Amino acid sequence: MAAVKSLLLLEPLFQREKVRRVLDYGAGTLRNTRYLLNRGYTVYITDLPAQLEKVAGQARTSGVKGILAVDELEDTSLCLDLVTCNFVFNIIEDEREKQRLLSNVWRNLRPGGLFLLDVAYRRPGSGRNTLTEEEIEARVIPAGFSRVAVICRGQTLTVLFRRVPLVATKMVS
Question: How much of the chain exceeds pLDDT 90, in percent?
Fold first, then answer.
């Protein structure tokens, strides 16, 4: 099975950007991981511990560079070129957990690194766990990212971001 469509569409850009080191955030069944490994990328994976237990053996034999539980990302600085996050952000209901995900991504990307975010796209009448482009940008941009590209395809919204320096905000008393 091929990778998610956004990876296929954006891979020419990743090649121009000289992307080599990738984190598959929410690796699940390793579909994107296998695709990226087959294309020559150095791949790290992260997921919840229960999911990692299911796929760790397969990940190791496939050549994954590192297997990390989500909690471990708070203590790492992997200096990655790209983090992919496909259909994970929209299923996290707790806003603090969403902010934690964004902080983990920012911390582990190199300056100027890319963050590929796929979510279920909210349209009129669409269900729970869907997001609009505005909702995504309102959360992601303040976390230290700028928007590079947006692709809407059917039920999927893909937004590609670039890590930028965090700007300290001045507290007003």
Answer: 77
C-alpha 63/C-alpha 43 separation (Å) is 8
CA distances from 59 to 23, 74, 86, 139 (A): 13, 21, 18, 31
Question: Domain for residue 15, yes or no?
Answer: yes
Q: What is the CATH number of the domain that holds 135?
A: 3.40.50.150
Domain carrying residue 54: 5-163
Q: What is the pLDDT of residue 173?
A: 47
Does a structural domain hold residue 140?
A: yes
Tell whether the model's pLDDT for residue 1 goes beyond 60. Answer: no
CB 112 within 8 A of CB 81: no
pTM: 0.91
Domain-embedded: residue 171: no
